[in-house]
Amino acid sequence: MSTDDNQAEPVHVSTEEEAAEQPEQTRAERNKKSDTSGMHNSIERLRSEFDKLLGVAVEQGERALDRLGLFGNEAVWMPRVDLIELEEQVQVRFDLPGVTAEEINITLAGNMLTVTGSRSTGTTTTTGQTVRMSERPSGQFRRSVPMPVAVDPDKVTASVQNGILSVVLEKSAMEKPRKIPINSAAGAGFSS
User: Fold this and answer.
1) Paired sense of beta strands 76-77 and 139-146, if any
2) pTM above 0.85, yes or no
3) Would you say 138 and 124 are in contact if contact means Cβ atoms under 8 Å apart?
């Protein structure tokens, strides 16, 4: 999109004398052109907002789709996550209190790390009991996190301890910084 597309067309302000000299049909044509220009600007604004929305969806993954109500009808909760990039690896930590390793599924597809599973709160009622408050999420959970860099799918480890799932992903060899040695030869130089 060029910068010219975002700028409104210049508006000509006519004097009373010019308006009296112009026939009625010309004024109507000018008004129609002005209406079309306004509609064009509105469409461009709408397109720009939609592009921004898609950008957010790509950056935030499923969380953005869920907030927009586009994720689906199933009752799914999303665990909180921390993503830390180090020099040679990426560490991702998910808050999953009360969930065992057997209840968690982890997949890495391309650049997207996805954790799914289920958790029951352990809150069960029997006859005569009434649950007055239940704030702990339960049932199916799902969280997809885009990796900030390319990772090696063969070098991924995961562990659960104290309700925190830790996933460590080694960066791809292309992403890891490497030191490049400098050869020094006495008297050697570049020839012209």
Assistant:
1) parallel
2) no
3) no
